[in-house]
Structures are given as structure tokens and as C-alpha cells.
Design goal:
The protein has 4 helices and 2 strands. Helix 1 runs antiparallel to helix 2 (37-66), helix 2 packs across helix 3 and helix 3 runs antiparallel to helix 4 (129-163). The protein is mainly alpha-helical. A hairpin with a 3-residue loop joins strand 1 (114-115) and strand 2. It has a two-stranded antiparallel ribbon with strand order 1-2. It has a single domain (6-172), classed as Fumarate Reductase Cytochrome B subunit (Up-down Bundle), CATH 1.20.950. The structure holds protoporphyrin IX containing FE.
């Protein structure tokens, strides 16, 4: 059984944890009524986790382009290979599109992004109320698409592992 290399495995699980954390915080923070210190704190943590996803996603993509992924078992039908490759490509795209939409939404709302409260990130656009509304909806819907993609990805991994009894999950474990 071929496995992914250790850097790919570490980046996979790190990005997965950060995405789950940012997603959960995003849902919780937007549900808090009013403008409380806790809400502001969660917004900051959310943005820092999201920018970190973007940085690690860039590293992941670079690693993936410079290395080859282990091949699937001979017996795996062609449509399943295509489905897996398609889902992976979609998830790579969303690892960038979700944080970038959140970043530009924040800038369009006239708020600078200060990474970990220390480094002010480039203010690439000014405040724009129309763009703000569009980017807020875009950030939301890209998140819903990503949630669907992640569920499909996890369901496929579990099906291969436990129903078809192909030990596929070992490929992504050290
Ligand atoms: C993988 C990274 C990210 C994930 C998974 C994510 C997820 C989410 C989710 C689920 C929501 C709640 C949407 C809703 O219910 O309305 C949200 C809202 C938000 N996100 Fe993100 N986000 C990410 C990155 C970012 C980044 C990098 C920023 C900015 C630097 C950002 C800024 C915001 C803001 C300001 C809101 C609040 C929108 C509102 O006011 O309703 N997000 N995000």
C-alpha cells in the first residue's frame, strides 16, 4: 500500500483541523447578537485561522505540484478515480476561494485584516457597500459548497475503508 509523503500527510490534517475550526467559529460568531467583546474576539480568531488556511493551502498546492500522489488500487473503477480527482480539485480550489472571499469581504466592509493582531495585511480594495453584500453572500455559498465537498470526501473515504474493505485511510496516516 503506497502512502502520501509525511509533509503531505501533516499538511492535510493541519488544514483539515483549521478549516473545521474556522467553519465552526464562523457559524458561532455570526449567531451572537449585538457587538460583544466575545463576538469581536471570535471574528479575529476566525480571520487568523482563515488566513493561516490560505498560507498552508499555498504550501500544499506547491507540494502537490512538485510531487506525485500515490496511485489507486488497480481494481478501482475509472469513474471512481475521476470522482476522487474531481473532488480533490474542487477542494483545492475552495481552500483558496473561501479564505480569499472572506478577506475581500472584510476589506469591502472597511475593516483591515491584522494577522494575529501584529501584521497588517495589504488593503487591496477600499470600502464598497455593494461589493460587501456580494462578497458576504459569496463567502457563505462557497462555504456551503466546501461543506458539501468535504462530506462527499469523508463519505467516500469511509465507504472504501469499511464497506469495500480497501484500507485507503492508511494512505493519509503516518
Ligand atoms: C477556510 C477558511 C474559512 C472558513 C472555513 C470560513 C467560514 C465561515 C463561515 C461558515 C461563516 C459564517 C457564514 C454565515 O453563516 O453567514 C463565515 C463568516 C465570516 N468570515 Fe469566514 N471563513 C474562512 C476564512 C475567512 C477569512 C480569511 C476571513 C477574513 C480575513 C473571513 C471573514 C469572515 C467574516 C468577516 C464573516 C462574517 C460574515 C458576516 O458578517 O455575516 N473568513 N466564515
Amino acid at each position: 500500500m503506497q502512502r502520501y509523503a509525511l509533509p503531505a500527510i501533516l499538511l492535510h490534517w493541519l488544514v483539515a483541523l483549521l478549516i473545521i475550526g474556522a467553519f465552526t467559529l464562523g457559524v458561532i460568531m455570526t449567531d451572537i447578537p449585538g457587538l460583544t467583546p466575545t463576538k469581536l474576539k471570535y471574528y479575529s480568531w476566525h480571520k487568523w485561522a482563515g488566513v493561516t488556511v490560505l498560507l498552508f493551502a499555498a504550501l500544499r498546492l506547491l507540494w502537490r505540484l512538485l510531487n506525485t500522489a500515490p496511485d489507486y488500487a488497480e481494481a478501482m473503477p475509472a469513474w471512481q478515480r475521476w470522482a476522487a480527482h474531481g473532488t480533490h480539485a474542487l477542494l483545492y480550489l475552495l481552500m483558496f476561494a473561501v479564505p480569499v472571499s472572506g478577506y475581500f469581504y472584510t476589506l469591502a466592509a472597511g475593516v483591515p485584516v491584522v494577522f494575529f493582531g501584529i501584521v497588517e495585511l495589504p488593503v487591496l480594495i477600499g470600502p464598497d457597500p455593494v461589493l460587501k453584500t456580494t462578497l458576504k453572500a459569496l463567502h457563505y455559498w462557497l462555504n456551503m459548497l466546501m461543506a458539501a465537498g468535504v462530506l462527499l470526501h469523508v463519505a467516500a473515504a469511509l465507504k472504501h475503508q469499511f464497506i469495500d474493505r480497501h484500507p485507503i485511510m492508511r494512505r493519509m496516516l503516518p
